[in-house]
Q: What sequence folds into this?
């Protein structure tokens, strides 16, 4: 069963901490994405990557960075966590190319609370 | 930035009723997808539509892509409690450098009461 695995389901961190959220996919997908999901705001794109070591900013990249050293792994880094980064974080992957999309496969999400 | 407006935000109905969820934009999308998300899980893809006017059926769910590829609808016939969840529409932009990025609507929370 193909999947996207996020390393933690729940995390509680203190303000100012550096936080790492890990995501691994086993489908050999080129594209990987990080979204945050907040009530009433839907899913907002933070960063995405279309190849190893390649990354592009999404709609809300401030306060975040990413790393993609291997094709299967895409990490989201909160450089200095703040309370307004408390949210559900969703990782997704999809096949590459510009053809009509085959859809995202999402992980189960990481619910991060910053106190 | 392309925007997708989804309506209604909340829908609470009785088992057996029909319902329609709408997804509208002023932008043209090359494809439109619908996802369903259950509490504590990530969204799961239900369908992708790519041609203006396209209609797809998935058991009791009917999906339509507008002729101008700016809007879409999801219709559920004879809703069941198992249909309860968050429904998300997502639009894919033009090809080229979009790298498969999707723009998501805010979602519709559907509750079907037995």
A:
């Amino acid at each position: 069963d193909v999947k996207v695995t996020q390393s933690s389901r729940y995390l509680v961190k203190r303000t100012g901490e550096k936080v790492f959220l890990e995501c691994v996919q086993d489908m050999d997908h080129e594209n990987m994405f990080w979204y945050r999901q907040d009530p009433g705001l839907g899913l907002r794109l933070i960063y995405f990557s279309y190849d190893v070591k390649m990354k592009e900013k999404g709609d809300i990249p401030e306060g975040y960075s990413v790393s993609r050293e291997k094709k299967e792994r895409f990490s989201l880094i909160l450089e200095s966590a703040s309370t307004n980064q408390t949210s559900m974080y969703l990782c997704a992957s999809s096949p590459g190319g510009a053809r009509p999309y085959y859809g995202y496969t999402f992980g189960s999400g990481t619910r991060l609370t910053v106190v | 930035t392309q925007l997708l407006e989804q309506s209604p935000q909340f829908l609470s109905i009785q088992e057996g009723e029909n319902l329609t969820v709408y997804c509208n934009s002023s932008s043209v999308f090359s494809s439109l997808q619908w996802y369903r998300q259950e509490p504590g899980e990530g969204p799961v893809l239900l369908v992708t539509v790519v041609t203006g006017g396209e209609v797809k059926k998935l058991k009791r769910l009917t999906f339509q892509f507008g002729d101008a590829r700016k809007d879409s609808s999801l219709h559920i016939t004879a809703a069941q409690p198992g249909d309860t969840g968050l429904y998300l529409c997502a639009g894919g932009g033009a090809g080229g450098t979009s790298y498969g990025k999707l723009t998501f609507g805010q979602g519709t929370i559907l509750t079907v009461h037995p």
User: Anything to note?
Assistant: The two ends of chain B are 40 Å apart (CA to CA). The CA atoms of residues 37 and 43 of chain B lie 4 Å apart.
